[in-house]
Design brief:
Number of helices: 5
Distance between the termini: 26 Å
Helix content: 25-40%
Number of domains: 1
Strand order of the largest sheet: 2-1-5
Structural class: alpha+beta
Order of helices and strands: HHHHEEEEEH
Strand content: 15-25%
Length: 133
């Protein structure tokens, strides 16, 4: 069972999930509109785990406040190579300027990391979710 489903099933009003989503929304408001939001960094910033931050970001994505993307990074140097919106777009090989070579997906020569971008208008319209006392 996913963490999101666990939160939703834990209570009809999901106070834990609502509190978590509110914390992440507050954090997002402190970021620039063009920032790339990485779940592990969000988790550290709000004192939560990466998976809990990821769960809240998924809820905010369902509300249209954030949008997920996938960053492809050189496995040797960690530099960004490309950004895609759908995993079906993963290339089998991708060229890295820093290494001056092609990196192959099947050999794990490049890494894929999920990040989010913010819709500043929808974030500004977001109202705190109610948390049961």
């Amino acid at each position: 069972m996913s963490l999101l489903n666990w939160f939703k099933r834990s209570s009809p009003s999901s106070p834990q999930l609502n509190a978590l989503v509110n914390k992440v929304a507050v954090y997002l408001r402190s970021r620039a509109a063009d920032d790339q939001i990485v779940p592990k960094i969000v988790g550290k910033a709000i004192g939560e785990t990466e998976i809990r931050a990821f769960t809240a970001l998924r809820v905010l994505e369902e509300l249209g406040i954030v949008r997920h993307h996938f960053g492809l990074y050189c496995g040797k140097k960690g530099i960004p190579l490309k950004s895609i919106d759908d995993l079906s777009q993963l290339p089998t090989e991708i060229y890295c300027d820093a290494c001056d070579e092609d990196h192959c997906e099947s050999d794990g020569e490049y890494k894929v990391e999920t990040y989010y971008t913010i819709d500043p208008v929808k974030l500004a319209q977001f109202k705190e979710r109610k948390v049961a006392a």
